[in-house]
Design a protein that fits this description.
By secondary structure, the chain is α+β, with helices and mostly antiparallel strands. The strands form three sheets. A four-stranded antiparallel sheet has the order 2-3-7-6, with helices on one face. A three-stranded mixed sheet has the order 1-4-5. Strand 8 and strand 9 form a beta hairpin. The longest helix is centred in the last third of the chain and has 37 residues. The chain is globular and about 80 Å long. The structure holds acetoacetyl-coenzyme A. The site of acetoacetyl-coenzyme A (CAA) has 24 residues, from strand 3, helix 9 and helix 13.
Length: 397
């Protein structure tokens, strides 16, 4: 019976217990992101969604403000901020434009963070500085037509030719695919070694044989630039491999742990944005002689929304704090993404309901947030993948 009292399970969870007080710097970052979202992104968001327009100019401005390489070492062009600031900024940008925030999230947490953490000084000097400053944009290329959730079964090959790799294959669903300059591409070098034979290569736009394929016509995040990419005998120099030979799959998994904090924060922003719109509308709209929030049917929806938003925010901040404290954060980031993406679906659906018929038309924003919410349950690991990650971690405690 003794082991029950050692409570290893509880200890591991409590190790992440956090201080909820935000610093002045973190609040200033949040306010700057909020101003940018309200003043720069909001005016064109409906049109960009309708016309599937990538907010190239606005994303460049985000870079100038230091939001595209938030956690990167300033020595390599970054802002040197913590992950909590990143969560706060992602929430504010995502409240208004989730198409912009996914470009921001991929650049920050999948591309810049991975390069900063695992790249060589030469790779950082050549690629990271421009990515972190927002002069250039990055993309992360793991998914393939037949390798989505089952990410180890990569069909793209990177054959070792001595001084370079010869890259062949197709990548699917690549965020920033058409507008990126720098691509981190996972490919199989030695199929006999399985996932231990996968490498991550830095590929530049314009390399011979690298073709940007079709753009996807999507349900949501329509301003985001999602493409198929094709590699036909692309020669990638050996010095563009990240880490040791065969490190590519672990690189992808480690990087996705942080990426999931970004997408969880995106889902949080979509959810809190929809809630704010529902609260405001419930005060304006009258039915049966009084504002609709005075009807309990509406007030209870707002109570549920507020509770889910708060819980999602706490999970995002807790994941961020674990990462900043250099604690393991794979499990908590998967929990944050699983919970926040479900909250985003629940809350946006109810926000449309609160708006009634007006919620179904574009100018009230909530229908777009509902369409945008769905992808947060799919990319950077579906909700089912998050449950695999969480359950394996729980069972290994
Ligand atoms: N950190 C480091 N290594 C890890 C790891 C982690 N978090 N998770 C797994 N690994 C390692 C394992 O240790 C193992 O290596 P060894 O055999 O050397 O020990 C190796 O990776 C394979 O692990 P598993 O045996 O657990 O592999 P699996 O096939 O059973 O499952 C998975 C792994 C968790 C399901 C994984 O395939 C996965 O996360 N799939 C989802 C992929 C995903 O998230 N794709 C999103 C695409 S990117 C995107 O959406 C970006 C965008 O543009 C928005």
């Amino acid at each position: 019976m003794k082991h029950y009292f050692r409570a290893p399970y509880t200890e591991k969870i409590n190790r992440y217990t956090m201080n909820f007080q935000l610093t002045e710097e973190q609040l200033a970052v949040r306010d700057a992101a909020r101003d940018f979202a309200q003043n720069v992104l909001k005016p064109g968001v409906i049109e960009r969604d309708e016309t599937q327009t990538f907010a190239k100019e606005e994303i460049k401005q985000l870079g100038e403000l230091g939001f595209m390489g938030m956690m990167v070492d300033p020595a390599y062009g970054g802002s040197g901020m913590d992950t909590i600031s990143y969560v706060l900024a992602m929430e504010e940008i995502s409240k208004i434009d989730a198409s912009v925030s996914v470009a921001m999230s991929v650049n920050n947490s999948l591309v810049c963070w991975g390069l900063d953490k695992f790249g060589t000084h030469e790779q950082k000097t050549k690629y990271l500085v421009d990515l972190a400053k927002g002069n250039k944009l990055g993309a992360f290329c793991l998914s393939e037509p037949e390798a989505g959730s089952d990410a180890t079964s990569q069909k793209t090959t990177a054959i070792d030719m001595g001084d370079h790799y010869l890259l062949n294959g197709t990548k699917n669903w690549i965020t920033n695919g058409g507008n990126a300059d720098t691509y981190l591409v996972m490919a199989q070098t030695d199929s006999e070694k399985g996932h231990r034979g996968i490498n991550c290569l830095i590929v530049e736009k314009g390399m011979d044989g690298f073709v940007i394929g079709a753009k996807e016509n999507k349900m949501g995040i329509r301003g985001s630039d999602t493409h198929t990419l094709i590699f036909n005998d692309v020669k990638v120099p050996k010095e563009n491999r990240i880490g040791e030979d065969g490190f590519g799959f672990k690189f992808a998994m480690k990087t996705l742990e942080g990426g999931r904090i970004g997408i969880a924060s995106q889902a949080l922003g979509i959810a809190s944005g929809a809630m704010e719109l529902a609260v405001a509308y419930s005060k304006e709209r009258k039915a049966f002689g009084k504002p609709i929030h005075e009807h309990q049917a509406i007030a209870f929806k707002l109570a549920d929304m507020a509770t889910e938003v708060e819980a999602a925010r706490l999970l995002c901040l807790k994941a961020a704090q674990a990462k900043d404290a250099k604690q393991p954060f794979g499990e908590i980031s998967a929990m944050a993404k699983l919970f926040a993406s479900k909250a985003a679906m629940d809350i946006t659906t109810e926000a449309v309901q609160v708006h009634g018929g007006y919620g179904y038309v574009k100018e009230y924003h909530v229908e777009r947030l509902m369409r945008d919410a769905k992808i947060t349950q799919i990319y950077e690991g579906t909700s089912e993948i998050q449950k695999i990650v969480i359950s394996r971690s729980v069972l290994n405690r």
